[in-house]
TrEMBL record:
Protein name: Uncharacterized protein
The organism of origin for this protein: Aspergillus mulundensis
Amino acid sequence: MPYLQSIDVRYGEDPSSEPSAGIKTVDGSSADINAGFGGDFVWLIPTYGSAATAASSIRIIIQGDADSAYYDLAKGAGGDYRYLRLERDGGAKISEVKLLRRGDGVDFAAVQALGFQGVSGDINEGRGGDFLYLVWKY
């Protein structure tokens, strides 16, 4: 079984730039991280491989200062910088990842009811609009 190795951030100028291999949403809504906020179109592209170097969780980092070590998930939208970081803590390995976009926040029980065992923080925290999470299966 392949496991999540990395997530690349891809930018585009219009919806037709969406990569076919990008992370999809649970319900078929927009996979553009910046949907509703202006700025660049932003998509996430997963890479899968062996368990030896696989990710076990995904952390969202939101801060006021730019960090050149990461790609901004809110590029061109203004406000805080939003980054993702894969954690490799030796626990269970991520085998599938999707985006979950909702009008209201979700708790872990709601994520489990959708068949997922992990959830990131809200990518859109503090900027209004939809709640947006990465959810995953082990």
